[in-house]
Amino acid sequence: MKVPLLEIRDLTVHFPLARLSLLGRKRTLRAVQGVNLTLNEGECLSIVGESGCGKSTTALTVMGLQEPTSGEILFQGKPLTGAGAPGRKERARIAQMVFQDPYASLNPRQTIGRMLSAQLALHGIARGSEARDRVADMLKRVGLTPDHADRYPHEFSGGQRQRIGIARALMLDPKILVLDEPVSALDVSIQAQIINLLMDLQETLGLSYIMISHDLSVVEHVSDRVAVMYFGRVVEEGDWRSIFSRPTHPYTRRLIGSVPDPDAILTGARGLPDAAPIPDASRFSPDISRRPDPDEEPEPSTLVRIGENHCVRLAQ
Amino acid sequence: MSGAPSEPMLPDPVLSVRDLRIGVGRGNELLHGVSFDILPGETYGLVGESGSGKSITGLSVMGLLKRPLQVTGGSVVFRGQDVLTLGRRARRKLRGDRMAMVFQEPMTALNPLATVGRQIAEMFVIHRGMGWAQARRKAVEALESVRVPAPEERARSYPHQLSGGMRQRVMIAIALACRPDLLIADEPTTALDVTVQAGVLELIAELCKAEGTAVLLVSHDLGVIANMCRRVGVMDRGRLVEEQDTRALFENPLHPYTRGLLAARPRLGSRSPAGRGRLTELDQVVTGEERGREAPTLTTPRGLRLEASA
Amino acid sequence: MRVRFNFALGLVLALLVIAAAISAGWIAPYDPIFDADLMNSEMPPSWAHWLGTDGQGRDVLSRILYGARVSLTVGLVSQLINSCIGTALGVSAGYFGGWWDDLVNGLTNVMLAIPSLVFALAIMAVLGPGLPSLLIALGLTNWSWTCRIARSSTLSLKNQGFVQAAKTAGFGDTNIMRTQILPNILGPVLVIATLGIGGAVLAEAALSFLGVGIRPPQPSWGNMLTDARELIRTAPWASIFPGLAIFITVLGFNLLGDGLRDMLDPHMRTRRT
Q1: Contacts of B189 (CB under 8 A, 6+ apart)
Q2: Interface probe, candidates B247, B258, B265, chain A, greatest A C-beta count within 10 A
Q3: For residues A179 and A198, is the Cβ–Cβ distance under 8 A?
Q4: Phi, psi (deg, nearest 5) at residue A212
Q5: What angle do CA C261, C265, C267 make, to 5 degrees?
Q6: For A133-143, what is each residue's pLDDT tens digit?
Q7: Which terminal Cβ of chain B has fewer Cβ within 10 Å, N or C?
Q8: pLDDT digits over B139-149, tens only?
Q9: pLDDT in the model for residue C266
Q10: Cα C10 from Cα C16, distance rounded (Å)
Q11: pLDDT at A272 > cutoff 80
Q12: If we measure between CA atoms, which residue out of C249, C144, C168 comes closest to residue C204?
């Protein structure tokens, strides 16, 4: 059995909340609760959900920008968090991130050439003219030109900045790319270009992606496997076909049902595909008819396999 | 299509924009002459990407364009009157009363220091001359009509205590309080979670239909437009390049830009089991020259219709 | 545009003072300390002495020109020290947060509560009078606003993508504070520094007036005011002109700072279409 490239085991991230009154009970925001995910080499795993579901926090934990409260993350079997975790520099060669906001993700006072070559210098990969060549290559790879290296971020459009963000992430040859809503802030016409670019790069460079998104149309198009998160927990998980052709958990069904799909609307063919059957006498967890309090203890539940590559969360 | 005398005539449009031009500074034109009509009770969508000019069109109808942007030509005829020729005071009286607007980011559009009940009640006090006590009662009714649970309690809440979807409902309540003739909704659901979006759009559609309020919906999301609008205008780089009935637009887009826009979006359920295909990129469908510049407006003539409502 | 006018006027005045300070050695008609002609003391402005003479027959104009050196040195150097201290504390507090942030905030609050002149006075009492002690004393008392501004700017930058990106690229914290954060907060810090120069000049004048700053016979606008205290009736020009010099200098730098702030402000706000 091949060791998965990345394993997230029982990841939990809690944030302390202000007490409601001076002597009130301590409250915690359970942003991520016992999440288990694996990423295999060469695949694209998407984590979907709405705001507050914990997908971004999970991504930040993988990147080392957020400490987990408990649980562990393993890269090729070796720990990425906790004791024995590698330092920042070593981490940088393992996983890199493409950020959501193309306008805030570049230092306005650095030319992009400088920004890209500084990384090479830091890791001792290349200096001087060799670094310049590598930067030029990378810019071409993401669809820009080498003379863009001397420009400042404000001289670029949103789509171009996102390309620069991708170039930055790839500069250090990481194995994993975490994409945090990579196209949400872009116009529709630019989205297509960036998505195509990301797919091409994945194939040519043999990368593995974790994509965080709320945009299901893009997710369906790009992913190999999908995990649906709701208030800190994975409620359904599987390969893309299972998730989109047999969405089972009520939350997944609600998500897919809310996507305003022009064709479906105009032809009146509104209707979700059938769900996969679940064992008798079990019910889905959590109950999505009421909005859970982020502070309350979650009910005991477990991910149950309902298909070859398809799990859903049921109450115990 | 000129009609035979026996067919019913169209009512006068509630909004008639003709050759609207907006510029910034000297010589920089952002909107190059946009024209469209909205009939009473109709939902009309304006779709385009950022920089297309759709938002500033909506703002100029309301009279909310901020310096240095300004209208440099054309007319905006609302209920028979060119509002661009009205003085500031007259325009202000129309706002909130006869024409209202709902914005993308409810948190910045609502006053953080006043309860939502008060903000709705204000509309009645200012535009209908009601007393505060009566206005507050009406405000609770308004919250109920936008389906906010526990409306009396909610009326005493401040905007920051409500979720995004709730705040948007409050904005809708404020906008529709005086039963305006025209509601302009500028990306009303873009900042909301996708499961909340559908509810808010349904609400707008339902309330406007009940009161006969015409809606100008500005959005970049074709799905939202398809959901809500009877007719759609496609904008690109300051020009209206195509205008059709929504269904016709999706089935048979006329302008290359529209075709490119429709093709670029991944459709749910369109991925083949064989593997990932590439998305069609806009410049594979429409070249730079075909965009914006001197592109003729392709519209289907507004046929005579039996019902004028969406 | 009104904004530009502020900046232009401030710049002109500031440059005037700087020019006076630099060229004092060449253009001052008399020696400020030794050309003391008691026979000609308390003389009103005349062709020989454009601004008159003081109680000891020294030329007021020359003393003012040399005094400009003192004021400017104190203003610029002490403000530089202030900015360094304030920026270092503010950026690190904002970046690291936690107990260090709490500590720096507490310290800043204490400093803001103590009247700065009193604090400077206390330090001068320990260090003794003179220019170096003055620079240290003023440098240590007025860093609080710079610290506040640096901290809040750092906080708003800290969670922007490019700072996080630098972390993920493997850069260390010191490097990030230096290359990512610092260049982006210089704007507000510069504005505060410029506005602080005027304050420093006033403080120097006050301390020298009280006798703990620059000791006579070295001319300083402050101690010129002290000397001229008794001469208000007989030789008012000995107080008026140093006072005017202080006024022009402080006004000039304040306008400069205001103008800078207004000019930098709109550019810092990124507009999204």
Answers
A1: B168, B196, B197, B200, B201, B221, B224
A2: B265
A3: yes
A4: -100, 125
A5: 130
A6: 999 999 999 99
A7: N
A8: 999 999 998 98
A9: 53
A10: 10
A11: no
A12: C249
SS3 content of chain A, % helix, strand, coil (to 5): 35, 25, 40
Contact A187 B260 (CB under 8 A): no
Interface of A with C in 148-167 (CB under 8 A): 154, 165
Cβ of residue A88 closer than 8 Å to a chain C Cβ: yes
Interface touch A65/C172, C-beta < 8 Å? no
- Which of A107, A115, A164 should we substitute to test contact with C (largest number of C Cβ atoms within 10 Å)? A107
Nearest to B176 by CA among B139, B149, B151: B139
Shortest alpha-carbon distance between residue A231 and chain C (Å): 23
> What's the rounded mean pLDDT across residues C195-206?
87
Of B50, B222, B276, the CB nearest to A262: B222
Give me the residue from C162, C169, C184 closest to A122, CB to CB.
C169
What is the SS3 assignment for chain C?
CHHHHHHHHHHHHHHHHHHHHHHHHHHCCCCCCCCCCHHHCCCCCCCCCCCCECCCCCEHHHHHHHHHHHHHHHHHHHHHHHHHHHHHHHHHHHHHCHHHHHHHHHHHHHHHHCCHHHHHHHHHHHHCCCHHHHHHHHHHHCCHHHHHHHHHHHHHHHCCHHHHHHHHCCCCHHHHHHHHHHHHHHHHHHHHHHHHHHHHHHHHHHHHHCCCCCCCCCCCHHHHHHHHHHHCCCCCHHHHHHHHHHHHHHHHHHHHHHHHHHHHHHHHCCCCC
Judged by average pLDDT, the poorest of A202-206, B44-48, C183-187 is: C183-187
Q: How far apart are CA B94 and CA C191, in angstroms?
A: 44
Strands B99-102 and B81-82: unpaired
Q: How many CB pairs under 8 A join A and C?
A: 67
Q: What is the DSSP letter of A209?
A: E
Q: Which candidate, A213, A182, A177, A166, places its Cα nearest to that of A42?
A: A177
Quote helix, strand, coil % in chain B, to nearest 5: 40, 25, 40
Q: Is A109 on the interface with C (CB under 8 A)?
A: yes
CB atoms C165 and A105 under 8 Å: yes
Please tell me the predicted confidence (pLDDT) of residue C101.
Answer: 95
Q: Does the structure's ipTM exceed the value 0.85? A: no
Inspect the interface and report whether the beta carbons of A168 and C161 lie closer than 8 Å. no
In this complex, is the C-beta atom of A101 within 8 Å of any C-beta atom belonging to chain C?
yes
Helix or strand run (H / E) with residue A304: strand A301-307
User: What pLDDT score does A117 carry?
Assistant: 93
CB contact under 8 Å between C183 and A109, yes or no, is: yes
Q: Which residues of A touch B251 (CB under 8 A)?
A: 266
Candidates A106, A122, A154; nearest CB to C162: A106
- Helix or strand or coil: residue A301? strand
**How far is residue C183's CA from residue C161's CA, in Å, rounded to a whole number?**
16
Contact A172 C169 (CB under 8 A): yes
Question: Which secondary-structure segment (H or E) carries B85?
Answer: none
Torsion of CA B232, B236, B240, B243, to 10 degrees: -30
| pLDDT greater than 90 at residue B191 | no
Contacts of B103 (CB under 8 A, 6+ apart): B109, B171, B186, B187, B188
φ, ψ for residue C214 (rounded to 5)? -80, 125
Going by the DSSP 8-state scheme, the letter that residue B95 receives in this structure is: B
Asked if the C-beta of A121 comes within 8 angstroms of chain C's C-beta atoms, the answer is: no
Q: Test A65 with C164 for CB contact under 8 angstroms.
A: yes
- Selecting from C168, C180, C272 the residue whose C-beta is nearest the C-beta of A96 gives C168
**Residues A154, A161: Cα–Cα separation, whole Å:** 9
Distance CA C180, CA C262 (A): 24
Q: Which of A61, A88, A177 is the best mutation test for C, with the most CBs of C within 10 A?
A: A88
